[in-house]
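Exercise (ungraded).
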Amino acid sequence: MIPISWILFLSLSLFTIGIFGVLARRNLLFILISLELMLNAVVILFIAGSRYHSASIANSDGQIMYLLVLTLAASEIAVGLSLVIHMYRQHHHLDIDKLNTLRD
Amino acid sequence: MLDTIFIITAAIILISAILTITAHNVVHALLYLIVTMLAVSLVFFILGSSFAAALQIIVYAGAIMVLFLFVTMMLHQGEKSLAQERHLFHFSSSITALVLCSMLFFELIYLLFLMPVASNTIFTTALSPIVTVKQIGMQLYGPYSLLVVISALMLLSALITAIHISKNPSTTKIKTQDNDL
């Protein structure tokens, strides 16, 4: 028997930690890692919600949304890591504060 | 029994997430992130959705972390990048973000305790109505078939974007500049 508020607390704490990572880090790779943490927090909330609302029959909507979020995370990481490689080729470091000109 | 396991797992998730965010070495951060993913999959197991837990281990801790590690292997320069990272992230520069995030966190927790408590806030985890993979497949190709199309389009566009960005013409430009120098 787990209260739903514990899972909400876990998800909100993980999401806040992810937001702190996005705000405080200046390395592009760490920002992508923080985005992964935030997506995981959202996914925990989806799964817990589908579990919470399955009164008599088994509810699989949460896992289907989990599949969509998983696909989203995979494509986001593919695009983000190719951007990381592109940035490293051009600037030779990953500081995002150096990205202040919109040209080559 | 289950709530004790849940509390331990939640503590592992939060501690390893904080260690992930505050690590200076990228490889250490990725290893802590793998610990976080495994603990999240344990939470999924506790909540009775075992298919999502297996996918979490296979895709997150397997595929996405391997992508990250390959990029880190290509870009990591040992002590030089560690010194750069220590210069980029230290505690005094992140105090503003810490204050903002703690304000947001306390607001969220305040809303959580302000939430109207229904009679059924207890969340039964009797592990009996486990969703099978067959049910998920029937739903995916039944009422949720648009979702499959959307995720296929998303993967295709991500593939095209990744190929286009990593095969940029500026690399040849840089090479010619190097030759000129």
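Further reading is listed at the end of the chapter. For now, observe: Chain A touches chain B through 74 residues (CB under 8 Å). The first helix of chain A runs from residue 4 to 24.
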